[in-house]
Amino acid sequence: MTTTETKPQTFKGTVVKTASKDTAVVSVSRYVKHPKYKKYQVRTKKYIVHAPDNTAQVGDKVTIVACSPVSKMKRFKLSK
After folding, report:
1. Which helix (H) or strand (E) segment is 66 a member of?
2. Residue 6 lies in a domain
3. What is the mean pLDDT of each run of 10 residues along the chain (80 residues)?
């Protein structure tokens, strides 16, 4: 058997909200081609991220990494 290491998902985005303790909301945009009309569009999704000690501020460009669940909604943590 061969063992292969998989890298966790990583996304780059912008911090949108830091109202809660140890939590930030990060908006991640991606550029996607529409399957029927072949026009490119920007799709945005918000991720709730574990940010210990509220290190991120609104407007910061950050990298988030998938991790084991921290709470009901938090499945990512801040990397940079």
Report:
1. strand 61-66
2. no
3. 83 93 94 96 96 90 94 90
Domain extent at residue 39: 15-78
Question: What pLDDT, on a 0 to 100 scale, did the predictor assign at position 1?
Answer: 64
The 8 Å CB, 24+ separation contacts for 22-29 are: 22/50, 22/51, 22/52, 22/53, 22/54, 23/48, 23/49, 23/50, 23/51, 23/74, 24/48, 24/49, 24/51, 24/54, 24/56, 24/62, 24/78, 25/49, 26/62, 26/64, 26/76, 28/64
Q: Identify whether 8 is part of a domain.
A: no
Please give the tally of structural domains in the chain. 1
